[in-house]
Amino acid sequence: MIRTHPGWPEAAAEAYRRAGHWAGLTFDTYLRNWARDRPGRAALIADGRRWTYEELDTEVSDLAAGLRELGLSRGDRIVLHLPNCAEFVMLWFALQRIGAVPVHAMPAHRSEEVRHLIRVSGAVAYVVPVRHQRFDYLTLAAEMLVSEPTLTRVIVHGEAPAEQGFTALRELKGLGDADTPPRDSGTTASDLAVLLLSGGTTGTPKLIPRTHDDYAYNARATAAACGADEDTVYLAALPLGFNFTLACPGVLGTFMAGGTVVVAPDPSPQTAFPLIERHGVTITALTPALLPHWQEENRNAPQALRGLRVLQVGGARLADETARALHREMKLTVQQVFGMAEGLICVTRLDDPEELICGTQGRPVSPADEIRIVDTRGNDVSESGEGELLTRGPYTLRGYYRAPEHNARSFTSDGFYATGDIVRRLPSGHLVVAGRIKDQINRGGEKIAATEVEEHLLAHPAINAAALVAMPDERWGERAVAFLVCDPASAPPSRRDIAAHLRNRGLAAYKAPDQVLPVASLPLTPLGKVDKQALAEQHIRSTSPR
Ligand code: OOB
């Protein structure tokens, strides 16, 4: 059998087991245990409905029986492309029950991203809503069924077309015989539990293999670090497919602690505040770009957030000033979260002094997380010096899925993952994120791989060369600026032309540049690479008032 990715060496795995980090339980076993130990407690609230742990378990059994009836089984990969709803959570656990592996797509993803996910994972099924935010997912799914040979099933949340290959989620529940005792899929805790999409720095985003052992520990350790217990009510406001929302502590960590998860269809304060008030939400997670809306709404209607104890903020750098204002303005504890789908999660602790909560991005959640900070030659920097963050640990991957060449570049020979983030470390162990060396734009927490977009820009007939560069932005933290060398014979394309071009090529809308600047040529570094720093500096000089 060809290995899809490198795992942990046996000695490390043994140490993680001995320390109790890896508990040896699959997500399906967890769910069965919760349903047995706390059947009547509220597990999930979504779309105005409520399920206890026992009811959730029953729903999951029904769905799992239907999935088996469809021919899905252990080890199969299934692309999950649902917006925030109860069915996301139920289907996620139903896939765990049959030993299949969800592959997370983000709601904003379009044909280009979905095709890539299906191809790399070899997915056999694809789960979609009918429509969401005015986008027609059925047409996309039909296209995938035709073009992707591995894909044989589309499962639809809503009305499914009466065509070959489509099944409605609702029908799935009646398909199998849920009364026969659920079969054990034979899955073990070291098997793959989920494939997450990396933020990416390359032309083709990479898939991150997470095992039951490591992902469950991720959820437990983050739950402990934010004091989650059975009184915790977590609001899932960011997309459920985001690692932050699913497992930091998110849905899975809240379940581990015995709490209740409330699902919000979107993260706007108009949607979230009434849910927080009605269901007594105690903790939620946001990206910095969403904060201004929440702060404004909170000034108008401060009673809504009375019960909120912890506000996690992460995914992109939170400015120290904003953190302080937030801390003062809202009567709750801010928890900064610096995490990555690849593994390592750092958080400020609830009892940290204000200067650490507001001035750092936290410290690792596990005592077994190993951190190195290195210079450009890979040597450790002096204490408190700045450098690239390397990490290794019980829930950080040892290699991407089916990406041997990329793995050779992203990991040291002894298994440290090179994050591409520039950090420094305080004596307390807290990290401050100071920048990034990876070729990526972090637009309000959404990651854009510059090379992926540049490749699509070059396919435009009027563009001869392109560089996508991150520039500071008031609203998003960073915005994407496309510097374009255009064909002198034709008019340079506008921002809207470029957005349409990328949309036609099937790219998610958030990857379209915020600004397009025609230039005569792109400056090069001595090594012949595009000098993005020079481009950014030139642009800042040319636009700043004298
Ligand atoms: C989270 O995960 P990803 O995989 O979308 O992005 C990871 C990257 C990090 O390498 C870093 O560049 C950036 O996002 N990042 C931050 C940050 N949190 C993430 N940069 C500065 N400050 C922060 N607080 O973004 C993610 C996953 C789990 C929990 C939280 C965030």
From TrEMBL:
Lineage: Bacteria, Bacillati, Actinomycetota, Actinomycetes, Kitasatosporales
One Pfam family of this chain: AMP-binding_C
Protein's name in the database: (2,3-dihydroxybenzoyl)adenylate synthase
InterPro entries named among the record's database cross-references: AMP-bd_C (IPR025110), AMP-bd_C_sf (IPR045851), AMP-binding_CS (IPR020845), AMP-dep_synth/lig_dom (IPR000873), ATP-dep_AMP-bd_enzyme (IPR050237)
Domain AMP-binding enzyme C-terminal, residue spans: 452-529
Entry superkingdom: Bacteria
Residues in AMP-dependent synthetase/ligase domain copies: 32-401
